[in-house]
Each structure stands twice: as structure tokens, then as C-alpha cells.
Amino acid sequence: MLLSVIPILPAYDLTATAHFYKNKLKFETRHFGSYLLVKKDSIEIQYVLWEGNEKIQPGSCSIVADNVEDLFANLSSLEMMDPRGSLKDMRLGKKEFLVQDNNGHILRFVNI
User: Fold this and answer.
1) Reduced to 3 states, what is the DSSP secondary structure of residue 15?
2) Backbone phi, then psi, for 97, in 5-degree steps?
3) Taking the alpha carbons of 105, 108, 109, 112 in that order, is the dihedral positive or negative?
4) Cα first-last separation, the chain
């Protein structure tokens, strides 16, 4: 039985990434040298320090929320939306919005 998935994404600067998640999204952060863990409720994302010369290829992950409308209202008041971001109606009654982190990765918040 599968229970969860934890994405591991590259980051240019782990301190800046921790600051983004802690101060803007109110996640808990734990820094382990070249590794960063960000967590809120049952959501966990891990970051590893990017040491390559080329730019990071941005990734994305979906985060399921029980009240995506209230979360959208809260984060949009903090100007956290991806430039393309708005609360969008999706198929089967789903709603979603996007937030771009400081490394260019897209966090897709979607309702249950």
C-alpha cells in the first residue's frame, strides 16, 4: 500500500528557500547542510543544494488541501501567486491555483 510521496527538488540557495517557506507559506523548516526539509501539516518537500553550472529545470508538485478557496484568499493577500495564478475551476468540481517558489518550482494547490 502506498501512503505518500515526498518530492526532492533542487535549490540554488537553501537559506533563501527556507526563508521563502517559513516566512511566506508558514512551513516548518529543517536545514541539514546541503539538504533542506520543509513541512506543514502532512505535506513534506525536500530540497537539495544545486551545485551544477546550468540553470535548474523547474519542477512542480501538487498539494491537496481541504479548503483551497480560503488558502487562495490567504496567499493572494500576501502576493504569493504565480504570475499566471488565479483560482481556476477544473474538471469534476476541482479547483486549483499555482504558487512559484524562489527556485522557479511550481506548487499546485488543489482541493480534495
Assistant:
1) helix
2) -150, 165
3) negative
4) 20
pTM of the predicted protein model = 0.86
Question: Residue type for 21, please?
Answer: Y
For the CA atoms of 47, 88, 94, 38, the dihedral, rounded to the nearest 10 degrees, stands at 20
**Are the beta carbons of 101 and 17 closer than 8 angstroms?**
yes
Q: For residue range 12-47, what is the model confidence (pLDDT) as tens digits?
A: 999 999 999 999 899 999 999 999 999 999 999 999
Measured CA to CA, the distance from residue 58 to residue 2 in angstroms comes to 26
Q: Which amino acid is at 88?
A: K
Q: Which CATH architecture has domain 8-111?
A: Roll (3.10)
C-alpha to C-alpha distance for 64 and 4, rounded to whole angstroms: 12
Q: Which helix (H) or strand (E) holds 69?
A: helix 68-77
**Domain ranges for the chain:** 8-111
44 and 82 Cβ atoms separated by less than 8 Å: no
